[in-house]
Amino acid sequence: MIGRTQHARGILTAALDAVTLVAATAILIAAAERPHPAATRGERNHQADSQRGLTLSDYDPVSMLEVASDVVTKAKVPAVDFHNHINHDEPERLLHVMDACNVAVIVNFTGGFGETLQAQVAKFARHADRFLVFANVNWDGIDEPDFGQQAARQLEADVKAGARGLKIFKNLGLGVKDNTGTLVAIDDRRLDPVWAKAGELDIPVAIHTSDPDAFFLPVDRFNERYEELQAHPDWSFHGAQFPSKATLLEQRNNVIARHPRTTFVALHVANHAENLSEVAAWLDRYPNLYVEIGARLNELGRQPYTARTFFVTYADRILFGVDSRPAESVYHPYFRFLETFDEHFDYFTHPRQGRWKIYGIGLPDEVLEKVYRRNARKLLRLD
CATH for 79-379? Predict the structure, then answer.
């Protein structure tokens, strides 16, 4: 009997010990989950964020990476910003930024035509060595039988008035329509007199064709530019109402091939910075083709090895530009990308053009000299 009683007591004691252990564990877990009395308000907010979840637009992580970081506030040589839109800006503000950043010349692509072009030239006339203006095409008469000849004559008049080149916006191929409602193709034969006239006048044609690859894809969870396209839904060219990107690039290249005596600058790294090997093939195929890098830091900077090889190989065919309202904060990331080997840093644009960081490519001085100024000065006949 005594043995049985002791055995029962042993079982009861073990059970009580187990209950005690479970209770103690629960107390410890609860204590660990409660904020410490000394926790700051910010720490409690972080805890609340983690409990309720964050939207993608609010997610803004701070990198823990510790690597070299250079501050480059001036271009290594006096640069030519070949791609900008300063028609609404005042020269005095621009000169302050340019001098601070060692930018010698800015090209204004939004010159217009006729009286508008003349007004833009006059606006910057006091500083004609610092600001150059490009003409644009008036598409209103596209259905006129002699549209090409009229546009060519207008271009010649604009050049006599001070225009230093011709800028073609992306609406050619994506927005310009004739009276039937049909989009006018970039390689439409009606435009041949314009391209030929540019060659005759020895002025460059800066042409913006299509847009980033992601802009032609469905705006869904697989699209790397989802946030940007959500913020600007009119930037999406996905759908049967638009030509494919491949079609647009082919049309542009047809024009370049048909007019070998005209110099073309395909803006935004020929709008195919996602595939530099294909851009390189175009540069090999068309000796009258140049490219410009404006607003493509995000693409170039995430492929630093490929980009550096591209810049070194085609140093004679690449132009510097930013395609953003001139400001010191705009120029600095470009200088850092081109001149340093810094890793994992931010480019400036917002909303994000993709959620990633970029890397510097540390170009040699002789390449920087060509990209920053020599190539542009050659095309603009500044020397």
Answer: 3.20.20.140
Helix (H, G, I), strand (E, B) or coil at 262: coil
Q: Tens digits of per-residue pLDDT, 251-301? A: 999 999 999 999 999 999 999 999 999 999 999 999 999 999 999 999 999
User: What pTM value is reported for the model?
Assistant: 0.86
How many angstroms separate the CA atoms of 316 and 322, rounded? 18
Spatial distance between the Cα atoms of 96 and 372, rounded to a whole number of angstroms? 19
Helix 328-339, helix 91-101: angle, nearest 10:
30
**pLDDT tens figures, 100-132:** 999 999 999 999 999 999 999 999 999 999 999
Residue range 312-323, pLDDT digits in tens: 999 999 999 999
- The residue with tokens 């469905």 is 218
Q: What 3-state class would DSSP assign to 177?
A: strand
CB 356 within 8 A of CB 365: no
Sheet holding 131-133, edge to edge: 79-84, 103-108, 131-133
CA separation for the pair 19, 25 (Å, rounded): 10
- Listed by start position, the domains of the chain span 2-58, 79-379
Structure tokens at 375: 């190539």
